[in-house]
Design a protein that fits this description.
By secondary structure, the chain is of the alpha/beta class. About 35% of the residues lie in helices and about 15% in strands. Helix 1 (about 5-25) crosses helix 2. The chain binds fructose -6-phosphate. Fructose -6-phosphate binds near residues 38, 135, 140 and 143. This is Glucosamine-6-phosphate deaminase.
Length: about 240
């Protein structure tokens, strides 16, 4: 779908609200897969507004975030933990225990078990109903950098130099950007029942073309979304500009 920038946020916030309300009326939890970065900010703002003005109830919502830098303290200004609390969770009535993010503060020898536990927690929650995604210049979804296969699961991996360069401004220099991250895998993402990938701006146009029109390829993890039965790309005209 091609929509104007602010329409993307309202369309997706409305869809997420609908999923939450349906689950609430059926007395079950809504399980959301969430992303960080600049792209979802408008959606989170709308969800906060819906909570305040329309009473959208997050008390039975369960969330799983895609990724976190490694190593990363949860209270660091750069952590995705902090991003999620500041941009969404502290403004809505979600119970703390319903929130899940990969942990960037564990010793290396505990990371593998933590990643397996993360996959188990998603299964225990009944799987993800709705997964929100952005896309990086490398074609990553989550932090599934080039080389991430379709079978990949939650794991620690090295970040691509392009990704680290894109994050350099936030970290006041590329040297300060962590070299690794923990991310849900391609397979963990494809297990979601519904997926929405959002991309806005001309700097995403090239990778969007590869993701939408290219063959499924471990060098561009987003190409694997083509095989999902219910995945939609929400693009503004600038991000869609190179589609043929
Ligand atoms: C963030 C994530 C990444 C970003 C992507 C785009 O949790 O998983 O894949 O979605 O790097 O980032 P922005 O939105 O800042 O362009």
């Amino acid at each position: 779908q091609i929509l104007e920038h602010d329409q993307i946020a309202s369309t997706l916030a409305a869809r997420i609200a609908q999923i939450i309300r349906t689950a609430n009326s059926e007395g079950r939890a809504a399980v959301l897969g969430l992303a960080t970065g600049s792209t979802p900010i408008g959606i989170y703002r709308q969800l906060i507004r819906m909570h305040r003005e329309e009473g959208l109830d997050f008390s039975n919502v369960v969330t799983f975030n895609l990724d976190e830098y490694y190593p990363m303290a949860p209270d660091s200004i750069h952590s995705y933990h902090r991003y999620m609390w500041e941009n969404l969770f502290e403004h809505i009535n979600i119970p703390r225990e319903n929130v899940h993010l990969p942990r960037g503060d564990l010793p290396r020898d505990q990371v593998e078990a933590h990643c397996e536990g993360y996959e188990q927690a998603i299964r225990d929650a009944g799987g993800i109903d709705f997964q929100l995604l952005g896309i990086g210049k490398t074609g990553h979804i989550g932090f599934n950098e080039p080389g991430s296969g379709v079978e990949s699961r939650t794991r620690l991996l090295p970040l691509d130099t392009v990704t680290r360069r894109d994050a350099a401004a936030d970290f006041f220099g590329e040297d300060n950007v962590p070299t690794e991250a923990i991310t849900m895998g391609v397979a963990s993402i494809l297990d979601a029942r519904e997926i929405a990938l959002i991309a806005t701006g001309e700097h995403k146009a090239r990778v969007i073309r590869r993701a939408v029109e290219g063959e499924p390829d471990p060098d561009v993890a987003a190409t694997y979304l083509q095989s999902h039965p219910d995945a939609t790309f929400y693009l503004d005209p600038a991000a869609a500009a190179e589609l043929t």
